């Protein structure tokens, strides 16, 4: 009780100033036990949408300077608990960060650059993807497609939309029987399995995640496709050979801003002269390649995607050209990823008890806030998603159809 009283006394002057900036339906309470209706209000309301319960005195400093990074850190480190719908938690968290940091806007986004070695990239990938296959299976679709779905009509289930996304990609690159296809960052194998089964391609899928490699290999064997598909635990920089088609879905976010030209140059090296490439990835909406505002990017780098870097679409197109690839078609799927992450977050919330039993409490908290945060970021134009179809530059793409109708043919 003494600690709770000290926390309340330390926070009260800040709350008085804070309420002059913004009126939020947020109730702040202190300690494990509290009286009915007790605590400090951050606005005028009868019933709070969100209740923040400060569990440790060190939580106070995180509220005194509320960025998305500091609030997120306090939550995942167990310094405070949060009650309320996760959508409300995210929306009000952004309003608190906005009110607490009026000087930071989108023009002042931080551009972080990291050194990407094969070792550091492997460690970053394994940190993110090797949580456990069962964990991901609980909130992804049955094929475990961990990237933006494609909602052709908008009313598809997640499973339907993920299959449509895979077919949309394979239609775009015009996969044909006998084509040799490379999937960089193959995940749990959904795209290469579909490319082999439906389109008759001979596929190589590469990943740096041991868990993904193991399950993808099992799934290829279960489908009886060992003669058509090879799954490798391999860095894209070590791949050799020639491929008629190359896909990269949700992978180039790990490449690094300073390495994009070399990444696309490696793809060009692996591509046949008349081959096509489809790069599908998250982008920054800041023209200067800055991270999401109010510390959101710092939180993601620290807890979710170590060394992840998002380029603006203009940077993607420029580095593609520098790497020897010509962009043939560009499609924005920001709305689709907003809907995808919303469905993931909804399933995650509905499965919270089961997920919480699978992983440490900190991991559960990280993913809960991250998935909901992604939905908010896509919805509010903080980040986007583009598919870019390209071929080797300096050549006339005589095999390219005159209209875009081929992308939607069944």
TrEMBL record:
SUPFAM superfamilies: S-adenosyl-L-methionine-dependent methyltransferases. Residues 15-96 form the DUF7884 domain. GO terms for molecular function: methyltransferase activity. The keyword Transferase applies. GO terms for biological process: lipid biosynthetic process; methylation. The lineage of its organism: Bacteria, Pseudomonadati, Pseudomonadota, Betaproteobacteria, Burkholderiales. InterPro entries: CFA/CMAS, CMAS, DUF7884, SAM-dependent_MTases_sf. Keywords: Lipid metabolism, Methyltransferase, S-adenosyl-L-methionine, Transferase. Pfam families: CMAS, DUF7884. The keyword Methyltransferase applies. This is Cyclopropane-fatty-acyl-phospholipid synthase. It comes from the Bacteria. Transmembrane segments: none annotated. It comes from Hylemonella gracilis ATCC 19624. The active site is at 374. Belongs to the CFA/CMAS family.
């Amino acid at each position: 009780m003494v600690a709770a009283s000290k926390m309340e006394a330390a926070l009260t002057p800040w709350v008085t100033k804070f309420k002059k900036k913004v009126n939020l339906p947020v109730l702040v309470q202190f300690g494990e036990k509290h009286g009915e209706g007790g605590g400090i209000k951050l606005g005028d309301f009868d019933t709070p949408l969100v209740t923040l319960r400060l569990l440790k005195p060190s939580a106070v400093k995180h509220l005194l300077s509320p960025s998305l990074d500091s609030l997120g850190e306090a939550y995942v480190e167990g310094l405070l608990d949060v009650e309320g719908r996760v959508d409300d938690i995210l929306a009000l968290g952004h309003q608190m960060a906005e009110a607490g940091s009026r000087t930071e806007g989108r023009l002042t986004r931080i551009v972080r650059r990291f050194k990407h070695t094969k070792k550091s990239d492997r460690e970053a990938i394994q940190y993110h993807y090797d949580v456990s296959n069962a964990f991901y299976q609980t909130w992804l679709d049955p094929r475990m497609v961990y990237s933006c779905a494609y909602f052709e009509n908008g009313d598809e289930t997640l499973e339907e939309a993920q299959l449509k996304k895979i077919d949309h990609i394979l239609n775009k690159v015009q996969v044909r029987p006998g084509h040799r296809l490379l999937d960089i960052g193959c995940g749990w194998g959904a795209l290469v399995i579909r490319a082999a089964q439906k389109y008759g391609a001979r596929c190589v899928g590469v990943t740096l995640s041991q868990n993904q490699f193991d399950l993808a290999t099992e799934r290829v064997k279960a489908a009886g496709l060992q003669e058509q598909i090879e799954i490798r635990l391999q860095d894209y920089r070590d791949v050799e050979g020639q491929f008629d088609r190359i896909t990269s879905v949700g992978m180039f976010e790990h490449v690094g801003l300073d390495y994009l030209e070399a990444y696309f140059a490696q793809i060009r090296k692996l591509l046949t002269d008349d081959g096509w490439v489809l790069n599908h990835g998250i982008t920054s909406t800041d023209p200067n390649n800055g991270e999401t505002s109010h510390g959101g990017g710092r939180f993601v780098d620290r807890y979710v995607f170590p060394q992840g870097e998002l380029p603006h679409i203009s940077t993607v197109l420029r580095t593609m050209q520098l790497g020897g690839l010509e962009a043939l078609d560009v499609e924005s799927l920001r709305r689709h990823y907003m809907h995808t992450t919303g469905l993931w977050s909804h399933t995650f919330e509905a499965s919270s008890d089961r997920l919480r039993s699978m992983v440490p409490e900190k991991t559960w908290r990280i993913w809960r806030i991250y998935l909901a945060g992604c939905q908010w970021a896509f919805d509010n134009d903080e980040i986007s998603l583009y598919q870019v179809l390209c071929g080797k530059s300096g050549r006339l793409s005589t095999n390219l159809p005159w209209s875009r109708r081929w992308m939607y043919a069944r």
